[in-house]
Amino acid sequence: MKQLGAEVDIQEGYVVARAGRLRGTRIVTDMVTVTGTENLVMAAVLAEGVTVIENAAREPEVIDLCQCLNAMGAKIEGAGTSHLTIEGVKALHGAEHTVIADRIEAGSFFVAAVVTQGDILVTHCEPHHMDAVLDKLREAGATLDVGQDWVRVRMTGRPKPVSIRTAPHPGFPTDMQAQFMTMNCFAEGTSSVTETIFENRFMHVPELMRLGARIAIDGHTAVVEGVQSLTGATIMATDLRASASLVIAALAAKGTSTVDRIYHLDRGYERMEEKLRALGADIVRVQG
């Protein structure tokens, strides 16, 4: 943002930003960042002149944002590549746009079906956004039927161990790492989960171990030794995707589990417990 002409300071733990009309420039991001790319794009569309973003994120959500902004009068080229060119405009106008389906929410339900050895049909999704996840589900032994906007996942027996390594799109999404680690906790064999995107994203591991999971962490890699079953316990959500992984683990664990601090879950899942209950899960939200 500073390169675009904004004044940005950290004051007493808060980000304070000021700007007139921003000015186009060339920006090379240090790492591939989805939210960073999206914020730069939104700033650049109304900046004066041309902005070029190198090493831009290629995730479907970035493409969707660019399509929405272009429908509103922005001039963005290169969406879906690592090189974005944005010619600033003076103003945007209204438009009609349908936001793409949440591939991470869909993927979380797929994993829930695998660990509970169930049968689930997810509609109004976009399977072509989830190739890496679907391939790993097949590797785990799940039976998949895939349509244009739906996926059916069926599972019988324990999953096979599946090793994953997170990577920017089109690689395996970091936002599915915790859910797949939960799946590997039930697998027949040993797997590894390597996180390359975020630091400190194994906070769900101690909570899974409270349920009886066998996991050892070595730097950015967790080695998971699958067990026959997990046992219910009181566990605590630490972030958005960790909370989903713990709910999924609790679905398949023996006995009753309580997942605390589910406000994390509500950031990315709308009425998850209602959807799971409609699938046959014994799950309730406890107020207070």
UniProtKB/TrEMBL annotation:
* Locations listed in the record: Cytoplasm
Q: Which family does it belong to?
A: Belongs to the EPSP synthase family. MurA subfamily.
Q: Does the keyword Cell inner membrane apply?
A: no
What span is annotated as the signal peptide, if there is one?
Answer: none
Record-level Gene Ontology MF annotations: UDP-N-acetylglucosamine 1-carboxyvinyltransferase activity
Q: Which GO terms describe its biological process?
A: cell division; cell wall organization; peptidoglycan biosynthetic process; regulation of cell shape; UDP-N-acetylgalactosamine biosynthetic process
Q: Which GO terms describe its cellular component?
A: cytoplasm
Domain called Enolpyruvate transferase: residue spans: 1-276
Which InterPro entries does the entry mention? Enolpyruvate_Tfrase_dom (IPR001986), Enolpyruvate_Tfrase_sf (IPR036968), MurA_subfamily (IPR050068), RNA3'P_cycl/enolpyr_Trfase_a/b (IPR013792), UDP_GlcNAc_COvinyl_MurA (IPR005750)
Pfam families, sorted: EPSP_synthase
Name of the protein: UDP-N-acetylglucosamine 1-carboxyvinyltransferase
Q: In which pathway does it act?
A: Cell wall biogenesis; peptidoglycan biosynthesis
Q: What CDD domains does the database record attribute to this sequence?
A: UdpNAET
What keywords are assigned to this protein?
A: Cell cycle, Cell division, Cell shape, Cell wall biogenesis/degradation, Cytoplasm, Peptidoglycan synthesis, Transferase
Q: Which reaction does it catalyse?
A: phosphoenolpyruvate + UDP-N-acetyl-alpha-D-glucosamine = UDP-N-acetyl-3-O-(1-carboxyvinyl)-alpha-D-glucosamine + phosphate
What's its EC?
2.5.1.7
Q: What class of enzyme is it?
A: transferase
Tell me the organism.
gut metagenome
